[in-house]
């Protein structure tokens, strides 16, 4: 992953942290797994939200093709 992409993912996660329950155009609830998926270009971030403490737990970051395996 390039440094620019890592910074963009960090920025998107910071935006998400402001209000993780708001509608974000590139974030969707996963159907077969618990948690959510954030799309950043060809990269995917799989995360869960702990509502009691508003903690976003990033479970996995990877390219589009292999992230769900």
Walk me through the structure:
The structure is a single chain. This protein has one helix and four strands; from the N terminus they run αββββ. It has 69 residues and is an alpha+beta fold. It has one domain: YaeB-like fold. The mean pLDDT is 82.
Question: Strand arrangement, largest sheet?
Answer: 1-2-3-4
Q: Percent helix among the residues?
A: 10-25%
Please summarize the sheet with the most strands: 4 strands, antiparallel
**Which regions have little confidence, pLDDT < 50, spanning 5+ residues?**
none
Judged by helices, strands and strand pairing, the structural class is alpha+beta
Second CATH tier, the architecture: 2-Layer Sandwich
Would you report the number of β strands?
Answer: 4
- The chain-level mean pLDDT equals 82
Secondary structure topology:
Layout: H1 3-18, E1 27-29, E2 36-40, E3 43-50, E4 55-63
Antiparallel strand pairs: 1-2, 2-3, 3-4
The gist of it:
The protein has 69 residues and is α+β, with helices and mostly antiparallel strands. It has one helix spanning 3-18; strands at 27-29, 36-40, 43-50, 55-63.
Salient structural properties:
69 residues; alpha+beta; YaeB-like fold; 4-stranded antiparallel beta sheet; 1 helix; 36% strand; globular
């Amino acid at each position: 992953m390039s440094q620019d992409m890592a910074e963009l993912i960090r920025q998107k996660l910071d935006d998400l942290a402001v209000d993780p329950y708001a509608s974000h155009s590139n974030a969707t609830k996963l159907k077969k797994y618990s948690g959510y998926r954030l799309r950043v270009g060809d990269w995917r971030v799989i995360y869960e939200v702990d509502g009691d403490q508003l903690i976003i737990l990033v479970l996995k970051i990877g390219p589009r093709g292999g992230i769900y395996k």
